[in-house]
Automatic annotation (TrEMBL):
Transmembrane domains' residue ranges: none
Protein name as it appears in the record: Alpha-ketoglutarate-dependent dioxygenase alkB homolog 7, mitochondrial
Signal peptide interval: none
Native species: Glossina fuscipes
GO cellular component: mitochondrial matrix
Gene3D superfamilies xref list: Alpha-ketoglutarate-dependent dioxygenase AlkB-like (2.60.120.590)
Originating gene: LOC119637886
A GO BP annotation: fatty acid metabolic process
A GO term, aspect molecular function: dioxygenase activity
Oxidoreductase as UniProt keyword: yes
Domain of life of the organism encoding this protein: Eukaryota
Cofactor: Fe(2+)
Keyword annotations: Dioxygenase, Oxidoreductase
Amino acid sequence: MNNFLKLRTAFTKSIYLIQEQPSLKRIIQFIANERKCRTLATKVQHTSEDSYLEFKGNWPNEEKQCFLQDMRIFINFVDEDEEQQLLSEVEPYMKRLRYEYDHWDNAIHGFRETERKHWYPENRKIIDKIRNTGFADEIMPFVHVLDLSSEGVIKPHVDSTRYCGNIIAGLSLLTDSVMRLVRIDEEKCQQNDESNVQQNYRTQPEQSHTLLASSFHANVLLPRRSLYIMSNTARYHFTHEILPNAVSTFRGQPVRKDRRISIICRNEP
């Protein structure tokens, strides 16, 4: 027992001396900081917006940099409780509606939708959080709620600048999904004031099925409870769509979309 006590005393003194030596303390602190930095770098890389973007085709570098600025993803923008809060407010009304398969502009199939101006106080905080994150000014007073069935699709289209501004922010609830944005000339989607087609809320380019082969594009993973903010060039120079399950993949892995509710905020045109 005496030998054990001597050994413990010697070990305690050694630790004390090491800690008192400035150079050794700096070495120990340096190693600890290095480990911390490596851990932090791993976390940052894992949560980087780039990890939710998949670029396809020959992207010009300048266009790619603009796209990275104009297509932003915020993971876990709301938590599970906040998601349930939103659903508890919109579900009673949505359940009274039928899913539609003949949209007036042929851009969406298997959907039901509404617009909501007034929200419960706790959900209004979430809407304000979206506004503060994605918009410099006020958003349009009516927030779009889009309920897409598990087999529903949103076809490639460009939203008209006549009815909303240069920013769209969408909160994805209930399921993961993949959004695809395909580069297209602005004139093909008729985004100009003289166009008669501009009267439509959404414009689908002619022969949109040929765009993928002739243009570069990006697949964007939209995890459940994430927020996407699409602005400027991503709004005007790309069609966007939610992929059907038959072709919904991200980096070679299938992403099955179930029923999806999105809360969509826009700024004034």
